[in-house]
């Protein structure tokens, strides 16, 4: 049976342009996609990853209000540093919660020949309409995606983030089907994701995708813990230390990191 369409939410606008809610920007990002990039971290996320080091991005509709023209104006002075590979990245929070803004911003960037990268955890992804049409429009103006797979096992994914992963894996499948370049990222957390069986399963899953240019293991770190204390939120990974370099190397082996060199060559 066909699924009923999603209810459209009202998109805030100013002077005919979609308004984005920006948490912060970084002028010389070196880890959020290929090359040197201007990165905008957008506000709002539904997930509650236990290891999230940016809980201050969770709240929706707060932060600095900007149109896509205003954000572009802020990014363009750095264009001389982007070279062949660099460009702009929209990150979060979860950028797909502001998909209309992302479409407008990337459309403007592509008109100027700027490389566009979307950094997402995939939680809002659905093939239901009208959302899926928007996502397809966004893909027309997106060069590469960074997709976080938080856990390959859906039950464990829910424990770790509050949400199951079926639609996130469906996003990965869709991106593979349309052959859109992606980097897959996975946070390695002792007692949560650092288990050989799950890493092996994730490694095998990634091998089924045709579009993966890079796989990154991100060692869990505790740099955001102070934000939880400041915000009065209980930190659920208290006492868990970052993984050892041996376990990081083990995860890189099980995820076949060496096999993906698409953006390193
Ligand atoms: S998806 Fe990203 S921003 Fe959202 S809770 Fe998880 S780590 Fe934090």
TrEMBL record:
<dbReference type="GO" id="GO:0046872">
    <property type="term" value="F:metal ion binding"/>
</dbReference>
<keyword id="KW-0670">Pyruvate</keyword>
<dbReference type="GO" id="GO:0051539">
    <property type="term" value="F:4 iron, 4 sulfur cluster binding"/>
</dbReference>
<keyword id="KW-0949">S-adenosyl-L-methionine</keyword>
<dbReference type="GO" id="GO:0043365">
    <property type="term" value="F:[formate-C-acetyltransferase]-activating enzyme activity"/>
</dbReference>
<keyword id="KW-0560">Oxidoreductase</keyword>
<dbReference type="GO" id="GO:0016829">
    <property type="term" value="F:lyase activity"/>
</dbReference>
<protein>
    <recommendedName>
        <fullName>Pyruvate formate-lyase-activating enzyme</fullName>
        <ecNumber>1.97.1.4</ecNumber>
    </recommendedName>
</protein>
<dbReference type="InterPro" id="IPR012838">
    <property type="entry name" value="PFL1_activating"/>
</dbReference>
<keyword id="KW-0411">Iron-sulfur</keyword>
<dbReference type="InterPro" id="IPR034457">
    <property type="entry name" value="Organic_radical-activating"/>
</dbReference>
<comment type="similarity">
    <text>Belongs to the organic radical-activating enzymes family.</text>
</comment>
<dbReference type="InterPro" id="IPR058240">
    <property type="entry name" value="rSAM_sf"/>
</dbReference>
<dbReference type="InterPro" id="IPR007197">
    <property type="entry name" value="rSAM"/>
</dbReference>
<keyword id="KW-0456">Lyase</keyword>
<dbReference type="InterPro" id="IPR001989">
    <property type="entry name" value="Radical_activat_CS"/>
</dbReference>
<dbReference type="Pfam" id="PF04055">
    <property type="entry name" value="Radical_SAM"/>
</dbReference>
<dbReference type="GO" id="GO:0005737">
    <property type="term" value="C:cytoplasm"/>
</dbReference>
<keyword id="KW-0963">Cytoplasm</keyword>
<keyword id="KW-0004">4Fe-4S</keyword>
<dbReference type="InterPro" id="IPR012839">
    <property type="entry name" value="Organic_radical_activase"/>
</dbReference>
<dbReference type="InterPro" id="IPR013785">
    <property type="entry name" value="Aldolase_TIM"/>
</dbReference>
<keyword id="KW-0408">Iron</keyword>
<comment type="function">
    <text>Activation of pyruvate formate-lyase under anaerobic conditions by generation of an organic free radical, using S-adenosylmethionine and reduced flavodoxin as cosubstrates to produce 5'-deoxy-adenosine.</text>
</comment>
<keyword id="KW-0479">Metal-binding</keyword>
<feature type="domain" description="Radical SAM core">
    <location>
        <begin position="31"/>
        <end position="265"/>
    </location>
</feature>
């Amino acid at each position: 049976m066909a699924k009923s369409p999603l209810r459209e939410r009202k998109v805030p606008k100013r002077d005919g342009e979609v308004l984005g809610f920006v948490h912060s920007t970084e002028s010389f990002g070196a880890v959020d996609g290929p090359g040197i990039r201007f990165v905008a971290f957008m506000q709002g996320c539904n997930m509650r990853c236990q290891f999230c080091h940016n809980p201050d991005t969770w709240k929706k509709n707060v932060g600095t209000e900007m149109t896509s023209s205003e954000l572009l104006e802020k990014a363009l002075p750095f264009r001389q540093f982007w070279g062949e590979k660099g460009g702009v990245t929209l990150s979060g929070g979860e950028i797909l919660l502001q998909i209309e803004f992302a479409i407008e911003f990337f459309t403007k960037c592509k008109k100027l020949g700027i490389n566009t990268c979307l950094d997402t955890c995939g939680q809002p992804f659905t093939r239901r309409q009208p959302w899926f049409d928007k996502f397809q429009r966004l893909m027309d103006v997106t060069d590469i995606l960074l997709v976080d797979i938080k856990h390959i096992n859906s039950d464990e994914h829910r424990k770790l983030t509050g949400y199951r992963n079926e639609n996130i894996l469906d996003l990965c499948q869709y991106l593979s089907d349309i052959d859109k370049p992606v980097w897959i990222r996975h946070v390695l957390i002792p007692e949560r994701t650092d288990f050989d069986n799950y890493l092996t399963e994730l490694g095998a899953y990634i091998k089924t995708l045709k579009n993966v240019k890079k796989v990154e293991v991100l060692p869990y770190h505790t740099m955001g813990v102070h934000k939880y204390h400041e915000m009065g939120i209980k930190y659920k990974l208290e006492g868990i230390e970052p993984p050892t370099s041996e376990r990081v190397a083990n995860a890189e082996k099980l995820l076949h990191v060496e096999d993906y060199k698409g953006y390193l060559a």
